[in-house]
Design goal:
CATH architecture: 2-Layer Sandwich
Helix content: 10-25%
Number of helices: 2
Oligomer: single chain
């Protein structure tokens, strides 16, 4: 079993995702591509090594997808107007979030 540390922020039309597993970290921001970093060697996250380690990228993105499947719609919204945005903008239900380009 993988022990991932994950975080997700839903935005209008996409979600930002960050996942950590030991020395590895993957991120996806602003509907851009997934990026992989070895944070032991690149703490500033300047060198995307996803092309050199596609298997690690795939493992971590799949783990994050599985983790996200247990998320539920919020029980309340603050401010209340966000409830309509959640429905109108299809927040948190983006088929491309876990797609690897």
């Amino acid at each position: 079993m993988l022990v991932l540390f994950s975080a997700m922020r839903h935005r209008s039309g996409f979600s930002d995702v960050g996942v950590r597993l030991d020395r590895w970290k993957v991120t996806k921001a602003y509907d851009g591509p997934w990026k992989l970093y070895n944070i032991n060697e690149d703490i500033s996250e300047k060198n995307d090594i996803s092309k050199q380690h596609p298997e690690q990228l795939n493992i971590m993105v799949a783990g994050a997808k599985k983790w996200s499947e247990g998320h539920e719609e919020p029980l309340w919204f603050d401010p209340v107007e966000l409830k309509q945005d959640w429905k109108d903008k299809n927040i948190a239900q983006f088929p491309n979030t876990f797609k690897i380009d």
